[in-house]
Amino acid sequence: MPGAAATPPAGETSQLPGLDQLQRMSSSFISRSLLEERPVTALWGCELGTGTRRCVLQEDDNCLEHLVLLRTVSLGAGARDELHVVAVESKNTYGGCKPVPIASLRGSVLPMINLKGLEFVPPVTFVLECGAGPVYLSGQHVTLEDDHRYEAHEEEMLEEDADDEDDARTAQDGD
Q1: At 42, is the secondary structure helix, strand, or coil?
Q2: Strand order in the sheet with 112-120
Q3: Rg (CA), the chain
Q4: Do residues 75 and 48 make contact, with C-beta atoms less than 8 angstroms apart?
Q5: Where is this region: Disordered (predicted)?
Q6: Model confidence over 119-166: pLDDT tens digits?
Q7: Average pLDDT, stretch 97-106?
């Protein structure tokens, strides 16, 4: 059946043991995060080429958690049939920034890739290391809002509305 996941025959193990477990752990972490926080998602995209070889995504200075999800890297219609290498620079746990290639595209072989699970914490920089482009990147910018802060703000608004209604009733009774 096309598109169905291949399962190893009975008695044999998968070539990548632990991958399913890693995906389940990642999914459960994300699920717990999303239960505790409200995600706000915005689409983003950029074009890398001879004029613009770097694209920098910064986080807003609002003390909220931000994630950049890269979904698609594709060559534009005007791209020559040459190797185009896109790399990413992001802070690692040691504070250093080293570009890491994430896509190697060539028009006649692989003009586009779809990515799943490639997440970065801003600031993140995408760099066209090789090729003239145009190369298009697209994905999502997710901001996680703390539900507790949102609920507190919502309660404040409800209290203000209740106070306004009380003031209106008092004014009406006084007439």
Answers
A1: strand
A2: 37-48, 135-146, 65-75, 112-120
A3: 24
A4: no
A5: 155-175
A6: 888 889 999 999 999 999 999 988 887 655 555 555 666 666 666 666
A7: 90
Residue 112 token pair:
């586009």
- As to burial, measured by CB atoms within 10 angstroms (0-12 exposed, 13-18 middle, 19+ buried), residue 139 is buried
DSSP string, 112-123: EEEEEEEEEPSS
Per-residue b or e along 46-80, where b marks 16 or more CB atoms closer than 10 Å to that residue's CB? eebbeeeeebebebeeeeeebbbbbbebbbeeebe
- Among 2.40.128.50, 2.60.120.340, 1.20.1740.10, 3.40.50.620, what is the CATH number of 47-159? 2.60.120.340
For the chain, the structural domain boundaries read 47-159
CA dihedral 15, 21, 27, 28 (to 10 degrees): 180
pLDDT at position 149, please? 52
One-letter amino acid of 80: R
Which DSSP string corresponds to 86-143? EEEEE--TTS----EEEEEEBTTTB-EEEEEEEEEPSSEEEEEEES---EEEEEEEEE
